[in-house]
Design a protein that fits this description.
By secondary structure, the protein is of the alpha+beta class. The protein has helices spanning 85-91, 103-112, 130-140, 155-170, 183-192, 196-210, 254-270, 275-278, 343-357, and strands spanning 3-6, 16-22, 29-30, 35-40, 45-49, 54-59, 66-68, 72-77, 173-181, 216-219, 222-225, 231-233, 235-237, 240-242, 245-246, 283-287, 306-310, 314-320, 323-337. α2 runs parallel beside α3 (130-140), α6 packs across α7 (254-270) and α6 (196-210) packs across α9.
Amino acid sequence: MVTKVVMPRLSLTMKEGTVGRWYKKEGDTVEKGEPIVEILSEKATYDLEAPASGVLRKILVQEGNDAQVNAVLAVITAPDEPFSETEIVTAAPQTVKRVLASPAAKRLAREHGVDLSLVRGSGPEGRIVEEDVRRFLEETRGIMPKVKEIIPLSGLKKTSAERVSKSFRTAPHSTVIMEVDVSKAKTLHDKLQVSYTAILVKAVAEALKEQPIINSTLENNQIKIFEDVNIGVAVATEKGLTVPVIRNADRKTLEEIDKNIRELTEKARQGKLTKDELTGGTFTITNLGMYGVEFFTPIINPPEAAILGVGRIREKPIVVNEEIKVRPVMTLSLTFDHRIVDGAPAAEFLRKIKEKIEGKATAIL
Protein backbone atom coordinates (compact mmCIF):
# COMPACT_ATOMS: atom_id res chain seq x y z
CA MET A 1 0.00 0.00 0.00
CA VAL A 2 1.30 3.44 -0.96
CA THR A 3 1.54 5.71 2.09
CA LYS A 4 2.15 9.45 1.82
CA VAL A 5 4.34 11.28 4.35
CA VAL A 6 2.81 14.74 4.66
CA MET A 7 3.77 18.03 6.30
CA PRO A 8 2.00 18.04 9.71
CA ARG A 9 0.09 20.95 11.18
CA LEU A 10 1.86 21.67 14.48
CA SER A 11 -0.22 24.69 15.51
CA LEU A 12 -3.54 26.31 14.65
CA THR A 13 -1.84 29.09 12.70
CA MET A 14 0.82 27.01 10.94
CA LYS A 15 0.61 27.24 7.14
CA GLU A 16 3.96 25.78 6.11
CA GLY A 17 7.03 24.13 7.55
CA THR A 18 10.61 23.46 6.54
CA VAL A 19 12.29 20.11 6.00
CA GLY A 20 15.37 20.18 8.22
CA ARG A 21 17.01 16.87 7.39
CA TRP A 22 16.03 13.39 6.32
CA TYR A 23 17.12 10.62 8.69
CA LYS A 24 16.56 8.06 5.91
CA LYS A 25 17.46 8.11 2.25
CA GLU A 26 15.51 6.78 -0.72
CA GLY A 27 15.48 2.99 -0.69
CA ASP A 28 15.97 2.66 3.07
CA THR A 29 13.68 0.42 5.10
CA VAL A 30 11.56 2.28 7.65
CA GLU A 31 9.49 1.09 10.59
CA LYS A 32 6.19 2.65 11.57
CA GLY A 33 6.72 5.11 14.43
CA GLU A 34 10.44 5.73 13.91
CA PRO A 35 11.60 9.32 13.18
CA ILE A 36 12.32 9.77 9.49
CA VAL A 37 12.50 13.54 8.94
CA GLU A 38 13.15 16.69 10.95
CA ILE A 39 10.47 19.39 10.56
CA LEU A 40 11.05 23.03 11.49
CA SER A 41 7.88 24.87 12.46
CA GLU A 42 7.28 28.37 13.78
CA LYS A 43 7.73 27.19 17.35
CA ALA A 44 10.02 24.19 17.47
CA THR A 45 11.92 21.41 15.80
CA TYR A 46 9.79 18.29 15.42
CA ASP A 47 10.77 14.74 14.45
CA LEU A 48 8.08 13.39 12.12
CA GLU A 49 7.53 9.65 12.51
CA ALA A 50 6.93 7.18 9.70
CA PRO A 51 3.16 6.62 9.31
CA ALA A 52 3.74 3.06 8.03
CA SER A 53 6.42 0.41 7.67
CA GLY A 54 8.02 -0.25 4.29
CA VAL A 55 10.59 1.37 2.01
CA LEU A 56 11.14 5.11 1.68
CA ARG A 57 10.49 5.01 -2.04
CA LYS A 58 10.59 8.65 -3.05
CA ILE A 59 11.56 11.93 -1.33
CA LEU A 60 9.67 14.85 -2.88
CA VAL A 61 10.77 17.77 -0.67
CA GLN A 62 14.50 18.07 -0.16
CA GLU A 63 16.32 19.35 2.92
CA GLY A 64 16.06 23.11 3.43
CA ASN A 65 12.89 23.50 1.37
CA ASP A 66 9.55 24.80 2.65
CA ALA A 67 6.25 23.02 2.06
CA GLN A 68 2.62 23.80 2.81
CA VAL A 69 0.75 21.93 5.55
CA ASN A 70 -0.48 18.56 4.18
CA ALA A 71 2.00 18.73 1.28
CA VAL A 72 3.40 15.32 0.32
CA LEU A 73 7.00 15.13 1.52
CA ALA A 74 7.73 11.51 0.59
CA VAL A 75 6.21 8.16 -0.27
CA ILE A 76 6.49 4.86 1.59
CA THR A 77 5.62 1.59 -0.19
CA ALA A 78 6.12 -2.13 0.16
CA PRO A 79 9.57 -3.25 -1.16
CA ASP A 80 8.46 -4.16 -4.70
CA GLU A 81 5.14 -2.36 -4.85
CA PRO A 82 4.47 -0.36 -8.03
CA PHE A 83 3.15 3.18 -7.72
CA SER A 84 2.53 6.14 -10.03
CA GLU A 85 5.31 8.60 -9.29
CA THR A 86 3.85 11.06 -11.80
CA GLU A 87 0.54 11.11 -9.95
CA ILE A 88 2.21 11.70 -6.59
CA VAL A 89 4.56 14.41 -7.86
CA THR A 90 1.74 16.21 -9.68
CA ALA A 91 -0.36 16.25 -6.53
CA ALA A 92 2.45 17.52 -4.35
CA PRO A 93 2.29 21.31 -3.63
CA GLN A 94 5.15 23.37 -4.98
CA THR A 95 8.07 24.20 -2.75
CA VAL A 96 10.48 27.11 -2.79
CA LYS A 97 12.22 27.43 -6.13
CA ARG A 98 16.01 27.23 -6.02
CA VAL A 99 18.16 29.86 -7.71
CA LEU A 100 19.95 28.44 -10.77
CA ALA A 101 23.61 29.45 -10.69
CA SER A 102 26.96 28.04 -11.77
CA PRO A 103 29.44 26.88 -9.10
CA ALA A 104 31.74 29.80 -9.96
CA ALA A 105 28.86 32.27 -9.58
CA LYS A 106 27.90 30.78 -6.20
CA ARG A 107 31.51 30.94 -4.99
CA LEU A 108 31.90 34.59 -6.01
CA ALA A 109 28.54 35.46 -4.47
CA ARG A 110 29.57 33.85 -1.17
CA GLU A 111 32.87 35.74 -1.14
CA HIS A 112 31.12 39.09 -1.56
CA GLY A 113 27.92 38.35 0.35
CA VAL A 114 25.67 38.70 -2.68
CA ASP A 115 22.08 37.46 -2.54
CA LEU A 116 21.77 35.54 -5.82
CA SER A 117 18.01 36.11 -5.91
CA LEU A 118 18.83 39.76 -6.73
CA VAL A 119 21.06 38.88 -9.70
CA ARG A 120 19.69 38.58 -13.24
CA GLY A 121 21.06 35.51 -15.00
CA SER A 122 22.21 35.57 -18.62
CA GLY A 123 22.76 31.84 -19.02
CA PRO A 124 20.38 29.17 -20.36
CA GLU A 125 16.96 29.26 -18.64
CA GLY A 126 18.10 32.32 -16.66
CA ARG A 127 21.04 30.52 -15.06
CA ILE A 128 23.38 32.91 -13.22
CA VAL A 129 27.01 32.75 -14.36
CA GLU A 130 30.11 34.31 -12.80
CA GLU A 131 30.01 37.30 -15.12
CA ASP A 132 26.47 38.12 -13.96
CA VAL A 133 27.68 38.34 -10.37
CA ARG A 134 30.66 40.53 -11.36
CA ARG A 135 28.34 42.85 -13.28
CA PHE A 136 26.02 43.05 -10.26
CA LEU A 137 28.99 43.96 -8.02
CA GLU A 138 30.05 46.71 -10.42
CA GLU A 139 26.54 48.14 -10.61
CA THR A 140 26.07 48.20 -6.84
CA ARG A 141 29.60 49.29 -5.87
CA GLY A 142 29.39 52.25 -3.53
CA ILE A 143 25.67 51.75 -3.17
CA MET A 144 25.31 48.53 -1.23
CA PRO A 145 27.36 47.78 1.91
CA LYS A 146 29.45 44.61 1.90
CA VAL A 147 27.60 41.70 3.46
CA LYS A 148 29.46 39.58 6.00
CA GLU A 149 26.97 36.72 6.23
CA ILE A 150 23.59 35.70 4.86
CA ILE A 151 21.20 33.81 7.13
CA PRO A 152 18.19 32.37 5.26
CA LEU A 153 14.87 33.40 6.76
CA SER A 154 13.36 29.93 6.83
CA GLY A 155 11.86 27.41 9.20
CA LEU A 156 11.42 28.68 12.76
CA LYS A 157 12.70 32.19 11.97
CA LYS A 158 10.59 32.62 8.84
CA THR A 159 7.30 31.49 10.37
CA SER A 160 7.97 33.45 13.57
CA ALA A 161 8.59 36.58 11.47
CA GLU A 162 5.32 36.02 9.60
CA ARG A 163 3.38 35.49 12.84
CA VAL A 164 4.60 38.62 14.61
CA SER A 165 4.16 40.70 11.44
CA LYS A 166 0.57 39.52 11.08
CA SER A 167 -0.07 40.10 14.78
CA PHE A 168 1.22 43.68 14.62
CA ARG A 169 -0.72 44.43 11.40
CA THR A 170 -4.07 43.02 12.51
CA ALA A 171 -4.19 43.64 16.27
CA PRO A 172 -3.94 47.25 17.55
CA HIS A 173 -1.31 46.86 20.29
CA SER A 174 -1.39 48.88 23.49
CA THR A 175 0.79 48.45 26.58
CA VAL A 176 0.45 49.26 30.26
CA ILE A 177 3.46 49.09 32.61
CA MET A 178 3.66 48.58 36.36
CA GLU A 179 6.40 48.11 38.98
CA VAL A 180 6.12 45.19 41.38
CA ASP A 181 7.79 44.66 44.75
CA VAL A 182 9.11 41.08 44.63
CA SER A 183 10.36 40.86 48.23
CA LYS A 184 7.90 38.11 49.18
CA ALA A 185 8.38 36.35 45.86
CA LYS A 186 12.14 36.37 46.47
CA THR A 187 11.61 34.78 49.89
CA LEU A 188 9.44 32.10 48.31
CA HIS A 189 11.98 31.58 45.53
CA ASP A 190 14.80 31.07 48.05
CA LYS A 191 12.76 28.91 50.42
CA LEU A 192 11.10 26.52 47.95
CA GLN A 193 13.72 26.75 45.18
CA VAL A 194 11.06 27.56 42.62
CA SER A 195 11.69 29.91 39.71
CA TYR A 196 10.34 33.44 39.47
CA THR A 197 8.71 32.34 36.21
CA ALA A 198 6.70 29.71 38.11
CA ILE A 199 5.54 32.36 40.58
CA LEU A 200 4.52 34.61 37.67
CA VAL A 201 2.64 31.79 35.94
CA LYS A 202 0.72 31.04 39.13
CA ALA A 203 -0.13 34.71 39.71
CA VAL A 204 -1.20 35.20 36.09
CA ALA A 205 -3.32 32.03 36.14
CA GLU A 206 -5.22 33.27 39.21
CA ALA A 207 -5.69 36.72 37.68
CA LEU A 208 -7.01 35.21 34.43
CA LYS A 209 -9.68 33.30 36.34
CA GLU A 210 -10.78 36.55 37.98
CA GLN A 211 -10.72 38.55 34.75
CA PRO A 212 -11.50 36.03 31.96
CA ILE A 213 -11.85 38.64 29.18
CA ILE A 214 -8.02 38.64 29.00
CA ASN A 215 -8.13 34.85 28.46
CA SER A 216 -9.77 35.15 25.05
CA THR A 217 -9.39 35.55 21.31
CA LEU A 218 -11.13 37.48 18.52
CA GLU A 219 -12.53 35.29 15.75
CA ASN A 220 -15.05 36.24 13.05
CA ASN A 221 -16.06 39.41 14.91
CA GLN A 222 -16.72 37.37 18.06
CA ILE A 223 -14.76 37.46 21.32
CA LYS A 224 -14.35 33.88 22.49
CA ILE A 225 -13.43 33.48 26.15
CA PHE A 226 -11.50 30.29 26.91
CA GLU A 227 -12.46 28.06 29.80
CA ASP A 228 -8.99 26.53 30.05
CA VAL A 229 -6.10 28.61 31.37
CA ASN A 230 -3.11 27.48 29.31
CA ILE A 231 -0.09 29.74 29.75
CA GLY A 232 2.74 29.77 27.22
CA VAL A 233 6.26 30.54 28.46
CA ALA A 234 8.63 31.89 25.80
CA VAL A 235 11.95 30.01 25.66
CA ALA A 236 14.99 31.10 23.62
CA THR A 237 16.71 28.24 21.76
CA GLU A 238 19.53 28.05 19.23
CA LYS A 239 16.99 27.78 16.42
CA GLY A 240 14.76 30.61 17.60
CA LEU A 241 12.01 31.45 20.05
CA THR A 242 9.58 28.71 21.06
CA VAL A 243 6.59 28.83 23.40
CA PRO A 244 5.77 25.61 25.29
CA VAL A 245 2.44 25.64 27.10
CA ILE A 246 1.63 25.04 30.79
CA ARG A 247 -1.82 23.50 30.48
CA ASN A 248 -4.48 24.14 33.13
CA ALA A 249 -2.06 26.32 35.08
CA ASP A 250 -4.89 27.50 37.34
CA ARG A 251 -5.36 23.93 38.64
CA LYS A 252 -1.68 23.28 39.38
CA THR A 253 0.27 23.97 42.54
CA LEU A 254 3.30 26.25 42.45
CA GLU A 255 5.62 23.25 42.73
CA GLU A 256 3.83 21.46 39.87
CA ILE A 257 4.12 24.53 37.67
CA ASP A 258 7.82 24.89 38.45
CA LYS A 259 8.48 21.23 37.58
CA ASN A 260 6.44 21.57 34.38
CA ILE A 261 8.40 24.64 33.29
CA ARG A 262 11.77 22.98 33.90
CA GLU A 263 10.79 19.89 31.90
CA LEU A 264 9.37 21.87 28.98
CA THR A 265 12.33 24.26 28.88
CA GLU A 266 14.77 21.36 28.65
CA LYS A 267 12.73 19.70 25.90
CA ALA A 268 12.50 23.01 24.02
CA ARG A 269 16.29 23.43 23.99
CA GLN A 270 16.68 19.86 22.78
CA GLY A 271 14.04 20.38 20.08
CA LYS A 272 11.92 17.55 21.51
CA LEU A 273 8.63 19.29 22.25
CA THR A 274 5.50 17.47 21.12
CA LYS A 275 2.56 19.00 19.26
CA ASP A 276 0.43 19.00 22.43
CA GLU A 277 3.15 20.85 24.32
CA LEU A 278 3.25 23.61 21.71
CA THR A 279 -0.42 24.25 21.03
CA GLY A 280 -3.50 25.46 22.87
CA GLY A 281 -2.00 28.47 24.66
CA THR A 282 -4.41 31.18 25.83
CA PHE A 283 -1.89 33.69 27.27
CA THR A 284 1.89 34.10 27.01
CA ILE A 285 4.66 35.25 29.38
CA THR A 286 8.01 36.37 27.99
CA ASN A 287 10.99 37.27 30.21
CA LEU A 288 14.03 39.32 29.16
CA GLY A 289 15.12 40.13 32.68
CA MET A 290 18.10 37.77 32.50
CA TYR A 291 19.54 40.02 29.76
CA GLY A 292 19.42 43.11 31.98
CA VAL A 293 16.31 44.52 30.28
CA GLU A 294 14.20 46.64 32.65
CA PHE A 295 11.00 46.69 30.56
CA PHE A 296 9.90 46.18 26.96
CA THR A 297 6.73 45.99 24.84
CA PRO A 298 6.31 42.43 23.53
CA ILE A 299 4.21 41.51 20.49
CA ILE A 300 1.06 39.48 21.13
CA ASN A 301 1.32 35.77 20.32
CA PRO A 302 -1.66 35.21 17.98
CA PRO A 303 -4.46 34.30 18.35
CA GLU A 304 -4.23 35.32 22.03
CA ALA A 305 -5.52 38.62 23.44
CA ALA A 306 -2.49 39.67 25.52
CA ILE A 307 1.10 38.94 26.52
CA LEU A 308 3.07 39.78 29.67
CA GLY A 309 6.64 41.08 29.41
CA VAL A 310 8.92 40.61 32.43
CA GLY A 311 11.95 42.81 33.17
CA ARG A 312 14.95 42.32 35.43
CA ILE A 313 14.86 42.37 39.23
CA ARG A 314 16.75 45.34 40.66
CA GLU A 315 17.20 46.91 44.09
CA LYS A 316 15.37 50.22 44.40
CA PRO A 317 14.37 52.61 47.22
CA ILE A 318 10.60 52.68 47.60
CA VAL A 319 8.17 54.07 50.19
CA VAL A 320 6.77 51.38 52.51
CA ASN A 321 4.48 52.47 55.35
CA GLU A 322 5.74 56.05 55.03
CA GLU A 323 9.37 54.88 55.27
CA ILE A 324 11.96 54.58 52.54
CA LYS A 325 13.06 50.97 52.10
CA VAL A 326 15.38 49.34 49.57
CA ARG A 327 13.42 46.50 47.98
CA PRO A 328 13.84 44.19 44.97
CA VAL A 329 11.45 45.30 42.22
CA MET A 330 10.66 44.25 38.66
CA THR A 331 8.72 45.94 35.89
CA LEU A 332 5.86 44.12 34.18
CA SER A 333 4.49 45.26 30.82
CA LEU A 334 1.13 43.97 29.58
CA THR A 335 0.58 44.32 25.84
CA PHE A 336 -3.04 43.72 24.82
CA ASP A 337 -5.28 43.66 21.76
CA HIS A 338 -7.27 46.89 21.99
CA ARG A 339 -10.07 45.37 19.90
CA ILE A 340 -10.79 42.98 22.77
CA VAL A 341 -9.69 44.85 25.89
CA ASP A 342 -9.77 48.54 26.81
CA GLY A 343 -7.10 50.27 28.85
CA ALA A 344 -8.99 50.20 32.16
CA PRO A 345 -9.61 46.41 32.36
CA ALA A 346 -6.07 45.78 31.11
CA ALA A 347 -4.67 47.98 33.88
CA GLU A 348 -6.93 46.25 36.41
CA PHE A 349 -5.66 42.84 35.27
CA LEU A 350 -2.05 43.96 35.66
CA ARG A 351 -2.88 45.35 39.11
CA LYS A 352 -4.27 41.95 40.10
CA ILE A 353 -1.01 40.29 39.06
CA LYS A 354 0.94 42.87 41.07
CA GLU A 355 -1.14 42.25 44.18
CA LYS A 356 -0.74 38.50 43.92
CA ILE A 357 3.03 38.69 43.51
CA GLU A 358 3.29 41.12 46.42
CA GLY A 359 1.27 38.72 48.57
CA LYS A 360 -1.75 40.96 49.06
CA ALA A 361 -4.39 38.88 47.34
CA THR A 362 -3.29 35.29 46.92
CA ALA A 363 -2.52 32.16 48.86
CA ILE A 364 0.57 31.32 46.81
CA LEU A 365 2.70 33.77 48.76
